[in-house]
Amino acid sequence: xxxxxxxxxxxxxxxxxEQMQLDLQQAFEREIEARLARLGKSLTRWADAPLLVLLGSxxxxxxxxxxxxxxxxxxxxxxxxxxxxxxxxxxxxxLDIETALSDLERVLAWVLGSSPDLPSSAQSExxxxxxxxxxSTSP
Length: 139
Fold this sequence. Notes:
Elements: H1 17-48, H2 50-55, H3 59-83, H4 87-111, H5 120-128
């Protein structure tokens, strides 16, 4: 979901390829941060919604909400780490964050009923497992 990323890059006819890549990466990172902020606002609105209060007695609804919140906060901390990283590690972290964020957005859409095509097994896996596996040794 990189809409708007290219709009944020300053026009640079004389910019080096390295500078253009840096500009693209920075725009990508800003877009991810904005999406995470929107996700956090959606979760806050959901917590304040009367429907959640009515469904709040349901353990599964409460658990799903709590897991989404924890994973959203965890992504915020991973972003803090990614901002202080460099090179390939930084790029890989941001790609992992983007993937995890897309999964969370999809799960939230499914939970709120706006995306009926998310299979229940994918939803339950996304809610059960960490959003980013930092112990993975794969590149």
